[in-house]
Each structure stands twice: as structure tokens, then as C-alpha cells.
Amino acid sequence: MTESTLVLVLNAGSSSVKYQLIDMLDGSRAAAGLVERIGEVNGRLLHTPARGERRERLRVFADHAEALAAVAEELAADDLGLGSPGLAAIGHRVVHGGQRFAAPTLIDDEVVAEIRRLIPVAPLHNPANIVGIEVARALRPDLPQVAVFDTAFHSTVPEAAATYAIDRKTAEQHRVRRYGFHGTSHQYVSRAAARLLGRDPAELNMIVLHLGNGASASAVSGGVCVETSMGLTPLEGLVMGTRSGDADPGLVFHLHRVGGLTIDEIDDLLNRRSGLVGLCGDNDMREVLRRAGEGDGDAQLAFDVYVHRLRKYIGAYYAVLGRVDAVVFTAGVGENAAPVREAACAGLSALGIEVDPALNAVRSGAARLISPDHGRVAVAVVPTDEELEIARQAFALVHDDI
Ligand code: AMP
Questions:
Q1: 33 lines ligand 1 (CB under 6 A)
Q2: Per the annotation, does 323 bind a ligand?
Q3: Which among 234, 290, 314, 345 is placed 20 to 30 Å from 209, CA to CA?
Q4: Which domain covers residue 74, as residue numbers?
Q5: E strands of 2-140, at which residues?
Q6: CA-CA distance, 291 to 188, in Å (whole number)?
Q7: Pathway listed for it (predicted)?
Q8: Is 163 within the bounds of a domain?
Q9: Which of 26, 79, 150, 246 does the annotation list as catalytic?
Q10: CA distances from 92 to 72, 107, 142, 308, 399 (A)
């Protein structure tokens, strides 16, 4: 019998499902795709098999069950269906694992119930993740399914960094603490950076900057996360595409009492109409850079606020770590926007953080150093791969269990 080496990674969002079928023999993708606009009239499924043409289906996907059934059909058409004996496990990205889940977890009814209990602290994400899990379990009840939590890598953040200075009873009652997100990416990237440096992660102190549409920083010491910028929710910390990041909590009372905005309106403002889009109307850093380059003042301010916050966090995390061996940029902005990396590190040479302009300008999909040879701190660009990390963790868990 051939060994099962495929892992299907599912990332179910509120109106989308992304998937990758990964062969753990070499990390290659047997297929990948997404279904978007689930529940809307203009749904779309895009399926890209490793062998063969990319296929697009334009139709209504009434709900996640229909969307996942369609994904299963596409995979089956490539002889990679959910019934395939090559499939070892399904790995689910789950955004919030609370304090209970600090590691990848084999899913059973009780685990689903606990993920459901965490909905109040992750109302935008956990419900969709649960639907993805339930539909996948219904399609393949016999197959091991593993939840990999965005919060898990941050479960090691010490109490002093995880505790908000508010009334303790209230905090405990409502599970208010720093959880952090993007953990799977921070974990993958910190290990990949250690490999790039040819060093053991146990020896290294790093600042990892995940700069995508959402953005977060983490301080990683000896392979363990000791501080991270997102908090109870993914709103805290860095300036993001549409989220404000850090802001005085007092502005919520001000906008409510003086401005007359409802709590839902303020939620919408801070999560969807702030950050880069709030400052200049564009949430895509490519547009911000293009417009700033043409002398657009709003885009320039958005860029300045974005990189000021980043530089501030690099300094703060330097203080948290005491010694820094590497600053690592990742995700859409971090991997591609050389001007952001340059500006974020500008003026930090006293800390040993420098960027070589020529190395920084190189466009590449590979992990690479962008600091000069004499730099005391390695500055690196490391492409993230959350799906591969989820697949690895799911596969390792299933194999340990056998
Ligand atoms: P992610 O969430 O990691 O997929 O990152 C998405 C973001 O990356 C987009 O919103 C863009 O702002 C940014 N991005 C992607 N490519 C580039 C690029 N070439 N230059 C600047 N920003 C980019």
C-alpha cells in the first residue's frame, strides 16, 4: 500500500474558502485554489492543479457546504478527491484558540465545541472556521482533521506582556488578554530565517514583521514567542491595510459620546475604514507607493504613519529582547515593498540595524539577507508559507498519533 502523504489545508473565511493540497514528501502543491463570494450572486471557484489547466467556475455557492462540495468535485476530477487513499489528513486554519489550544489539535466534537465557545473573542473568524471543519468532517468522517491555531505560537508570551492593565476580575470574566494572531506565519518565518542564517533557532533573538493586509510584529527568543503586537483581537499594533492598529481607547468613548457614532459604526471604522485606506483611500501598498511617488500628500502621510509605527515597534521589541540577531520582513508588503523595509530601518544604525540599498532592491521569491556584511543585525526577507506550516503540523500530529 502506498503511504498517505497528502494534506489538504483549508482556510475558511467569512465568505471564502482557500485550499491547498500539499504533498509532504517534498512540500509541493498537488492542487490549490479558492472559492470566493460565498452566499453572493457572483460566486467564483478558481482551481489550479499542479498538472493541467487552471479552471474557473462562475456560479452561486449558497453556503460553505456547497463551496466545499464543489472543491471536492474539482479535486476528484484530478483524481485527488477527498476519498483518495493518498490523503493523510485535513489541516484547518483556526484563528482563535484562546488559552486552551497552544498546539495543533486533533479535532473531535469536544474540540469543535471549545472553538465555538471562543466565538465571543473572535466573532469574525471562528464561526467560518467551524463551518469549514463541520463540512469537511461530514465529507470525510474517518479522516484525521487537525486544527492549527493562529494564536498558538503566541501562547508562550509571558504574563507581563499578555496582561492588559485593567481590572483583573473583569479581564478574567471576559477572557481579556493578549492572544496575538498570525502565529503560524511568525513560527514558520522565524524558523526559516534561522535556516537562512545557518543558526539554531535556540540561539537567536529575532523581530519578525508580518506585513500583509493585516500586519503584526513579534519578538522571538530562542524559537519562542515572547511578545506580539496583536492583542485580544487582530486590531491592535501596527498600521494595517484597513485597520488602525494602536489607538487611544479613549477615542471610542469620544466618537460615541461626542460624535454620536454607534459601537458597530466605530467597530467598522477601526477595522475596515482605517489604516492605509482611512488615511489615503487605498489599502494596497503598491498604490500608496505609486501615489506618494507622484507627490500625493495623503499617500505620503499614510506611508509615513505606517513606517513610523513599524520603526517604533522595532525599537520597543529591541528593548524587550535586549539583544537582537535578526529583523525579518515577511508577507505581501514585507516581501515586496523595498521602500517600506528601507524606511522602517532608517535611523536604526545605532542599534546595529542597517539595510543595504542594492540588496534591498533585488526582487526575488527566495529568503534573502538585505543587510550589509558589516551589519551587526541580520536584516532578512523571508517569504511566509502558512499553508505549508499548517500541513507540516497536521501531518506531524497524525504521524505521532499512529
Ligand atoms: P498578504 O496579506 O500577505 O497577501 O499581503 C497583501 C498586501 O501586500 C497587499 O494589500 C499589498 O498592499 C501588498 N503587496 C503585494 N505586492 C506588493 C508589492 N509588489 N509592493 C508593495 N506592496 C505589495
A1: no
A2: no
A3: 290
A4: 6-149
A5: 6-12, 17-23, 28-36, 44-49, 55-58, 87-94, 105-106
A6: 33
A7: Metabolic intermediate biosynthesis; acetyl-CoA biosynthesis; acetyl-CoA from acetate: step 1/2
A8: no
A9: 150
A10: 15, 9, 16, 35, 17
In 197-325, where do the E strands start and end?
205-211, 215-221, 224-228
What CATH number did the domain enclosing 10 receive? 3.30.420.40
| 260 labeled binding residue | no
Of 90, 119, 149, which residue sits at a domain end? 149
150 catalytic, yes or no?
yes
Give me the phi and psi of 86, to 5 degrees please: -75, -10
Whole-prediction pTM value? 0.95
In this structure, the answer to whether residues 263 and 136 fall within a common structural domain is no
Averaged pLDDT, groups of 10, the chain, 402 residues long: 85 91 95 94 95 93 92 91 90 95 96 95 88 91 96 98 98 96 97 98 98 96 98 96 97 98 97 97 97 98 98 98 98 98 97 98 96 95 96 92 55
State how far the Cα of 77 lies from the Cα of 284, in Å rounded to an integer: 36
Of all atoms in ligand 1, which is nearest to the CA of residue 210?
Answer: 3
Contacts of 82 (CB under 8 A, 6+ apart): 8, 72, 75, 76, 139, 140, 143
Rounded distance between C-alpha atoms, residue 323 and residue 5, angstroms: 40
